[in-house]
Amino acid sequence: MSIDTERTQSLPITAPPVPPLVRAELPAWAPWGVLIAAFVLVGGLLAATGGFSVAMLVVASAVVYAVATYLLSRVVEGRRKATDRLVTIVVTLAFLIALTPLVSVVITVVGNGLARFDVEFFTSSMRGVIGEGGGGYHAIVGTLTITALAAVMSIPVGLLTAVYLVEYGKGRLARAITFFVDVMTGIPSIVAGLFAFALFALFFGPGVRLGFAGSVALSVLMIPVVVRATEEMLKIVPNELREAAYALGTPKWRTITKVVIPTSIAGIASGITLAIARVIGETAPLLIVAGLTTGLNFNPFEGRMATLPVFAYTSYAAPGVPREPYLDRAWTAALVLIIIVLVLNLVARLIARLFAPKTR
Amino acid sequence: MKTVRHGARARIAAVGIATSGVLLIAGCGAANESAPSGGAGGSAAPSVSGTIAGAGSSAQQAAQEAWIATFTGQNAAANITYDPSGSGAGRTQFIGGGVAYAGSDAYMTPAELTQAQTRCKSDVVEVPDYVSPIAVIYNVPGVSNLQLAPATIAQIFDRKITKWNDPAIAADNPGATLPDLAITPVNRSDKSGTTQNFADYLKVAAGPAWPYAVSDSWPVQGGEAAQGTSGVVGAVKAGNGSIGYADESQARGLGQAKVKVGSEYVGPTAQAAASVLEASPRVDGQGQYAFAYKLARDTTTSGTYPVVLVSYLLACSKYADAPTADLVKAYLNYVVSADGQSLAASKAGAAPLSDKLRGQITPAINAIAAGS
Amino acid sequence: MTTTTEKVTTQALPKPVQQLGDRIFAGTAKAAGVLILVVLAGVAAFLIVQAMPALLASPADLPGGRSLTAYIGPLVFGTVLAAVIALVLATPLAVAVALFVTHYAPRRLAQGLGYLIDLLAAVPSIVYGLWGVAVLAPATLGVSTWLNTYLGWLPFFAGPVSVTGRTMLVVGVTLAVMILPIITAVAREVFFQTPKLHEEAALALGATRWEMIRMAVLPFGRSGIISGAMLGLGRALGETMAVAIILSASGAVTFNLISSDNPSTIAGNIALQFPDSTGLAVNTLIASGLVLFVITLLVNAVARFIINRRREFSGAN
């Protein structure tokens, strides 16, 4: 919004003795012209030297484009404008660089995962399957059940803790909770798994393998993320809203549940989704406490449950002969995992939009 | 007012969709599990039922999956699970009473055996069930049919021989053209029975050329290290001039070196691997039902391939209840049977146990019974 | 604004009506917070109890026959090295991305673009591991060779170049990708909160967009960026599966980032060694987990110290 104003302003401020047209800004097409020129130049050079590759072309063109734009702008528009243009290019490039791994991961997973992305994968388990065929239905059920249970335990605890920290917390206890929640975000996932295993082994003996134990391990990982995300969102809620509610005689807890949380529900929802995304792909703790089975198990309180990450990991790590069906299933499991997270993301955003107060 | 009502309806709809989605998933069983899958059965043995769990060696995972699939196909009332959680974890769980049987890439130490006997309140059944040749795999352009003597392998993995055209390698491969390429040895980065068996082979067969103690962690620093068989195979495939060791079945399509035994060079075939067990003495003092073998890595018998991984099944000889005992006995008998072994050979690349060996270990399995 | 603290403002607020519901609600919230402390105490107690045998054992009984420090030392080095590489790569990129989303991208697209970056956080770590081995590692071979040829005099690129690309550098890059969305999210949030008046004042004085950002946005967001980076660092320190799958871990203590000889990380080492470990070896691994726990504690203490200094900007005061 402020882009246009600043361009027109720079004219009269700069040095009077210079002829005004020379100190003018570059025409609107100039950056595009430079970009195309850079592409052609680099492409030609690479083709001439024989070392042509797409990656090389893109990287070198970007560098040439940035340098050329800077120099051109420096000559025509002066140092400050040139720096500004350079930073714009660098920031945009940074964004594109950040997107590269995302695109690459998606291409890799989709490319390898589509081979078994069929009806059978979603309707069959691995029970009685040797080699080809079979599917990940049991693992999908396991992942959804275990993650849902973890979410059911983590979200209330995390949300209430965040409410306590932002709305009630003061003094030593609140400071301690804030600090240790942060420490908790750094617990390595495998340690959480070992902890859950030790906890359940105390009650059920050393052979315990439960879907629910997996949920507990995931909760240890998930709670701090929920707290952090919710805390940040609650803090952003303007104090004016709280004060207005108090002024109307609303009790504090009604203010929190009816004003503060609804106002920030969108942020909280996306924070919780990120927390779920963080734990749904965990492999190591589930391998230890939830185990692996080839058949379907709907009951998280009895027996082993297969989960998508563990299924993908063991299929990759210990394939049979021939390897291909196992590796295909591993990639498809990874693909399904990502799709589940995406769908969760969309649902969370939808819910957030529906429940958010109408501000118009 | 209108917008409010619309919003409320939309909320209900959203919650409804979410719940119905969950219900939809929870509602139906797996397509392959709905029908009783005992069609292939008709086995003469009396049918067994119940649920047992096993855990341990990840090397056995593919074979266990195949065995369980076929066995439960024939005995629809039986349910068996196997966690590929690692040999060490498997032994620990077995000792702790967490699983009915375990798979382990190494036989139990005396201390573990005592603990296991305490858990079982009886003798421990320990039988080899999975023999797999470990291939020395390499990726050197232009070189096929590589032949290596044990000492040469040891020096390569000890990083004493660093070039593919080293005279020692050339001596093993008369007439071959070897490139002037750096050797990248690839080893396992995780603890594994494969490493232990490979190191044991180097220690015994190469003698002074391998100055390290045998353990399940790789002793030499500085090589390329990769996780699991898949990791090693992937690293050798990707690395020009690399050499590694991995289960033969997982390394097909890569160059597999022939190893010098006596005066000939032998490739990693199932038959050559199985014959090592024949030539190996049984470890004493393990108990009457424990068949642990001190593998004859330095054998000079023609046609044997001494770089093998031998993985064991661990079970109690007494279980508290009869169904469990029967199920364990039936399953273990199936695993070591000719059918079970040929299934493992075709689906997991194992070397089938010989009939002679089967004759020796079957009595131990048949001794499994209920009671204490 | 700068002098107010939480206590002062809370007292200044109109006194809300007290109800029974209020007390119950406050009590529940407090209980949730205490529950977290209990869980964490449980984790810590578990770690200490399980690590004790390794701490008390004589060095000869430990894996490798060395003392506990000799075993864990290289792991600590590797953990910190990988995390620092990730942080050095990710932080500038995250700040730039956050700037792009908040100040450069067209307003209508901004939210969608931010969402795209959030998707990076949605990819499970095991997928990053598989991707790192299958795609990223081979792709870096050319770059590593180039670095070794032209920058080989730096200890980081001394070589010899790994032939598979499964190096510390690749692990650092993968971890950087994994923590990028975390740092970006925090930085974006802070940049959005930059007082509009400051920005407009800078522009009105004739500042270019970059000058405005440098003078108004970055100083405001500095502590936010640092706290985001610390959060990312915590994540990078504890990453398990991706490191275990990608890294060629052979136990060397070296700054050389492009060879196949790398130190392992604590979390990655636990994942690699745990399945086949028994007895004291397990205790040793858990002792290393305890060390990681302490490192995380220190990192977060630093982060909290910095975050506390920017508390005055939060809306809840």
Provide structural commentary.
With 360 residues, chain A is mostly helical. Chain A has 15 helices and no strands. In chain A, helix 2 (30-49) packs across helix 3, helix 8 crosses helix 9 (211-236) and helix 10 runs antiparallel to helix 11 (252-263). The longest helix of chain A has 35 residues, at 79-113. In chain B, 40% of the residues lie in helices and 19% in strands. Chain B is built from twelve helices and 14 strands. With 317 residues, chain C is mainly α. Chain C is 73% helix and 0% strand. Chain C has helices spanning 6-12, 20-56, 68-104, 107-122, 125-139, 141-151, 168-192, 196-204, 209-238, 241-246, 266-273, 280-309. The longest helix of chain C is centred in the first third of the chain and has 37 residues, at 20-56. Chain C starts with 5 loop residues before the first helix and ends in an 8-residue tail after the last helix. Mean pLDDT of chain C is 83; it is low at 1-10 and 313-317. At the A-C interface, helix 1, helix 4, helix 6, helix 7 and helix 8 of A face helix 1, helix 2, helix 3, helix 4 and helix 5 of C.
Nutshell version of this structure?
Chain A is mainly alpha-helical. Chain A has helices spanning 3-13, 30-49, 54-77, 79-113, 119-123, 137-168, 171-185, 189-204, 211-236, 239-247, 252-263, 265-280, 284-289, 308-317, 324-355. Chain A is built from 15 helices and no strands.
Q: Which series of helices and strands of chain A comes N to C?
A: HHHHHHHHHHHHHHH
Total DSSP helices of chain B: 12
Oligomer: heterotrimer
Classify the helix fraction of chain A into a percent range: over 70%
Radius of gyration of chain A: 28 Å
Do you know the CATH topology of the largest domain in chain A?
Answer: MetI-like fold
Q: Beta-strand level of the residues of chain A, as a percent range?
A: under 5%
- How would you name the CATH homologous superfamily of the largest domain in chain B? Periplasmic binding protein-like II
* Biggest sheet layout of chain B: 9 strands, mixed
* Biggest sheet architecture of chain A: none
